[in-house]
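Pinned message: reference record for ABC transporter ATP-binding protein
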Amino acid sequence: MTYSATGFGSQDQNNAKVLQVENLETHFITRAGVLKAVDGVSFHIHAGETVALVGESGCGKSVTALSLLRLVPNPPGEIVGGRILLDGDDLLEMSQSEIEDVRGDRAAMIFQEPLTALNPILNVGNQLSEVILRHTKASKREARALVLDMLKRVGISDPESRLKAYPHQLSGGMRQRVMIAMALLANPALLIADEPTTALDVTIQAQILELMRDMRDQTGAAVLMITHDLGVVAEMADRVIVMYAGRIVESAPVRTLFASPAHPYTLGLMRSTPNLTTQRGELSAIPGLVPTLAALKDMEGCRFAPRCAFASQKCREHEPPLENASNDQSVRCWHWDQVLASQVAV
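Predicted structure (tokens):
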């Protein structure tokens, strides 16, 4: 497949679907019973496109990301249903050795905390070279040259000396750049980034996001970004998927979602985010908490109903389907038209 740089907001929807997830089900088998962390999730990502997966902690974002590469600890986790198609190949049908060949090669992941994700007893050079040696027939000398080139591309100064450094000897921003370099070394078709800028100061965060955008445009990779930061979403994403309690509750292009969210939960997330262009005073807060996985077992109706200002008796008794609010916006809510109307009235 030939990729071309697409730039923010200009994704060519005629590009092939690099990733297609169909009705993904990931459960945790515990003494308390079967806990449904990911419950019937479906979405896709095109080449050169960035899709953001957002929601509060506990909504199932990271478990979804880990499920894509079959990294959910088993036991107690288990992917019990669905399909994960990477360029048409179902990752759930692969053997253990086959999925290990995919990881770091055709698909790669940038983890949330690089200090714990990187091996503390191996220097940077050895860890990065391992990716090349594992997935290609390059010699050690060729692998070293490729690693040096990638370190330069991700903006690491004096890469020769960094090869000998250990993770604890690098700053947080530098470790994150090393993680990005590791993920991109094999030129993957799919890049998964789980909270890639958490705990970084705003200056380093901006640099990391710019780097990721440049790398995406250069390689044409499909990017799945896991985040709860709507500022990052606005800057990076082409499309947004909102998760709540293990299910997708809304999906739309980024501009559509920010202009007219159709789900009460999405609207609550928007209104709880600081906005320098308005004079709203105190921020709104979504009442209550995300239900625990154990609580979901006995819950009927819409999972957001206990926290929702639009909830009716129908919401408490029957869970809504995911339906189209427009050609490019889908929502799981019985009263999405009221949600949209409430914003027009404000």
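Pinned by admin. Summary line: The mean pLDDT is 88.
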